[in-house]
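Predicting holo structure, calcium ion bound.
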Amino acid sequence: MAQRILLVEDEPEIASYLVRGLGYEDYHVEHVATGAAALAAAREHPPDLVILDLGLPDMDGLEVARRLRAGAPIPILMLTARDAVADRVAGLMGGADDYLTKPFAFEELLARVHVQLRRAQARQQHELLRFDGVTVDVAAREVRVGDQRVELTAREFDVLELFMRHPRQVLTREQVYERIWGYDFGADSNVLEVYVRALRQKLEAAGAPRLLQTVRGVGYVLRDER
Ligand code: CA
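Done. Tokens:
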């Protein structure tokens, strides 16, 4: 389903430019030109993200942001005039997640939109991966065995998350290197072995059984062999 963007912008040229561009990227865009219309539209069809011009004819954009936020934690991307530095700061304080200074390149706006929507999605889903007593909270980057929290380094977490996403599936060393490090360390490297050993020690110290099994000559698999 297309994600909904509410565009609040009173300058017709900018508005039509953004409606066209975002529509082309398969977003469902609703455009309004005033703060009052924005609040009404957000109530009627809650958007996934709001692009909000700071200078609106009827209402301060910051006030609109505050009221939108009072209803729901919607990501807001604020559009500000070129030298409104103080306003930018206030915009962030007032609940905007990000801002762009006019004039901006469409690609820049699109990149910000992607980031905000991705973050919002991760927050909403609060995705939990579970396998045999081990729980990985993807958004919070927390790992537990039962109730016990396990402290992992960032890379250890990445390796564990990868295996938790592919339980009982043999992942070759090459696959893991490509996914986590972006390149293959080669057959002689023991980088992955080091991480697997550390993960086994930490998980097992917290009471988990041996879950990362070696598949000799190939790679590893997340599987309980009790
Ligand atoms: Ca304006």
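The first strand starts at residue 4 and ends at 8.
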